[in-house]
Each structure stands twice: as C-alpha cells, then as structure tokens.
Amino acid sequence: MATMTKPDLPFAAEAALWHPVLLSRDLGQQPLAAQLLTQAIVLWRDAQGIAHAWADQCPHRGARLSLGRVCEGRLECPYHGWQFDGAGQCQLIPALPDFTPPAGHHACTFEASEAYGLLWVRLTPGAAAVPLFAAEADARLRKVNCGPYTVQSSAPRVVENFLDLAHFGFVHEGWLGRRDATTVPPYDVRATPTGLLATGCKAVQPRSSVHATASAMVEYTYEVIGPYAAVLTKLPEAGTAAIEGLRESIALFVCPVGPETSEVWVRLAMNDFDSPDHKLTDFQDTIFGQDKPVLESQRPKRLPLEPGAELHCAADKMAVMYRRFLAQTGISFGVC
Questions:
Q1: 3-class secondary structure, 311
Q2: What angle do CA 218, 219, 222 make, to 5 degrees?
Q3: pTM for this predicted structure
C-alpha cells in the first residue's frame, strides 16, 4: 500500500497558515472530528497528551478515524482496528498480528499546535507563525475564551465586520452604539508586517463592555494580525467603567470551515480578575449574537475583492485596506 498522500488543495496560501479548530480543553481522551478549508480532520491526543491532527480517513478502507478510539496511545480505526502512532505510522493490524506494517502503511498527517487555549492546525508547511496576540504575554491581564460561534458566512466577512465602526449604532444599538451618534471621525490605517494597524478610531458607546457604568467616548485600536485574525483594544473615558484604569484587548480568531461557513473564537485579555467567566462570556455572546444574523444575510457570502464590486465611503478605510491586504496575500478562500 502506498502512503496516503496529502490532499490537493487549490488554496495554497491559506493551507500554509495556522488556523484555530477547537478549544484545547475540549480535546480529551476521545478523538474528535473537525473541518478546515473543507478538509475533514480528526483531532486526538496520544499517551503524552500531545495533540495531533490528521485527515479523517483511514488509509486502509477510508473509514472516518474520528469514529475510532485512542488505545494505548495510538489512534485505532473503527473499521478494522488498525492502530497508528503519533507520527501516523501503522503499528498494528489485528487481522495479521504477527505482520510488521511497512513505512507505506501511514495516515495523512497535518501539523498541530496549541496557543491561546486553542488547538491550531496547518495543512501544509509554511513560514507563517500562529497569529501573535501581544496581550497574551502580559501576566497582569486575565485571559478568557468565548465561543465558538458558528456562522454561515465567509471568514473574511467575519473579520471585516469585526473591524467596522459604522455598524455600532444600528446592529449594537444600546450596547456599542447609539443611532444619534453614528459619525465615524477620520482615523489612520497603515500596513504592518502581518497585516494592518488602525489608530485614532473613536465611537460613542452606551455600554462598551461588561464593566461600563455610563455612556462613553471609547478610543479603539485595531490590528489585523493575519488574513483571518484581528485584535482590538478599547480605552474608555475615565470614570465610565466599574474598574478604574480598565484595560481590555480582544482577539478574533476565525476558522474558515468552508468558503461560506466559519467557526469564530473571541479571546479576552483584561485586568479584571474578579468577575466570573460567564459574566464576561455572556457579554460577548450577546454582541456576536447581534452580528450573526446580519453576517448571514450578506450577499455574496464571500467577500468581494474586485474594486467596484461593493460601494465604499471614507468610514470604510479599514475595510478597503483589508481587502487589498487579502488580495496581496494571495487569499482565495472565502473571497470572490
């Protein structure tokens, strides 16, 4: 039998990136199924607790490995019990217990890594690292993951929505915006080695966070840290939050499951060590719950990159530059 080959992916740029596929804590003793860039994946941990990501297909008869089990640190196929070690090599064929499987008896393996409480997968080797969430290294900030949120929209549409200030007063009325204060003042955007940085973004917000005690003018900084990842920081006016000197940095990590389907995680980094997790996640659940129906209503579901495909105004400067960044990066998945 020949070694199971890597799938032929037409979107090389995306396949060489790291993508989040699961909360690390959700992967225990049993294998789990996931999907990334339309590729079916099985996730599992070996006896040392190391996470692995493979094509969810046994090289013997094509059964889904995610229906199997982990046995003595090996992944066992549910169909004929073939067992594969962490490197993907078959070590046991129960029908032939005295047979030593050759090197060609091998599963299709991908790279897996864990960061920010998430399990990340890369389908092909590449130079890009896991997107850098700088606030992660600050021990003075508490980190909490929210999601995943499943949305029938392309990953670039989700990221562009995260970067958009002008929808606050309509989609998040009474929370992140007001209908009588929808002006988007001029702001600056520049390119960075990993994407974009927007500074000087301001919005009037009735409730900018779970800790807001009054309406405030909030200053935002946005950073695109990868084609499907972005970070924002919020700085509310003094005296408008229950925590004096509130610091809040929010990362958006989007998994492009399919061209028009995404899994979304939000990771918070803030100097609040007292509130229960559910209080913080409930707020993000509410905000994303408001975004979801609008995201799913957009047509086309894939983000148009061709100039003139959609209208723009001065408030859309970040979106325009984000689309240019995707085009320059060679992104073809989730765009049109």
A1: coil
A2: 125
A3: 0.94
**Short-list 280, 329, 281, CA closest to 305:** 329
Taking each continuous run of H as one helix and of E as one strand, the counts in the chain are 5, 17
Distance CA 116, CA 145 (A): 8
Between CA 229 and CA 329 the distance in angstroms is 14
DSSP assignment of 200-254 equals: EEEEEES-SSTTB-S-EEEEEEEEEEETTEEEEEEEEPTTSBSSTT--EEEEEEE
Q: CA 284, CA 331: separation in Å to the nearest integer?
A: 28
Stated as kind and residue range, the H or E segment containing 284 is helix 277-297
- Count CA atoms closer than 13 A to 105's CA, side-chain side: 14
Per the listing, tokens 């390119």 go with: 191
Neighbours of 296 (CB within 10 A): 13
Q: Which residues face 51 on adjacent strands?
A: 45
- Residue type at 239? G
Dump pLDDT digits (tens) for 94-136: 999 999 999 999 999 999 999 999 999 999 999 999 999 999 9
Closest CA to 261 of 150, 149, 123: 150
Q: Is 155 helix (H, G, I), strand (E, B) or coil?
A: helix
Tokens of 259: 């061209």
Helix (H, G, I), strand (E, B) or coil at 110: strand
Using the 8-state DSSP alphabet, how is residue 153 labeled? S
CA 117, 122, 128: angle at the middle one, nearest 5? 90
Place of tokens 């005295």: 98
Beta bridge partners of residue 199, listed in sequence order: 188
